[in-house]
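I am writing to request your help with a piece of structural work I have in hand. The matter concerns a single protein, recorded as an amino acid sequence and a row of backbone structure tokens. Could you please explain, in whatever detail you think fit, how the structure tokens follow from the sequence? Thank you for your consideration; the sequence and its tokens are set out here:
>
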Amino acid sequence: MSTQNELLKQLLSDIDAATTGVVRFFAGRTSRRSFLGKLGALATGMGAFPLLPMAREDAGNANALAAPAAGSEGAISEMGDEQSCDYWRYCAFSGQICSCCGGSMTQCPPGSETASVAWVGTCHNPLDGQDYLISYNDCCGKSACGRCGCHRSEGDRPVYFPSKSNSILWCFGSNSHAYHCTLARVVGKADAG
């Protein structure tokens, strides 16, 4: 038992000596003002951390939002013109509607790819009276489509809340940063609570 106590005392003594040496090393080479400046820069950088892009990928499923849940698209009663900005899925939409650009609401046109990050909105389907979570993914890799421009901002949040901001070019999550059009995929029913 005394050997364990002696080993513990020696370990604590070694940690204390190492810590003291490191602190004295930095104290001899930096001033308080320099240290406080670096600490302030670190604190400011940590404050900006939430502004970084948010990946919408699940490590086990690289296309967690790239494809809707099985049956979620087909089980929804829909009616209306999907090329119209007034279509119910476009409540938080910003960009060109992919249905007008050679794709659909859920598939990018040929030659473009789906960005792996997205913003989300909760839209009300007037046909069944339900609210649905909609994933808005940009299609990237081709120049802008230029047709069926639509900007609706229901539920849009400022840029510092990126997951619900439609004012960001979301192509930074793909191989090309060239924006083409935007998808509106149903992820599932929105929680009531």
User: Anything to note?
Assistant: The beta strands are 94-96, 113-125, 130-140, 149-151, 179-182, 185-189. The longest helix spans residues 2-29. The chain is about 25% helix and 20% strand.
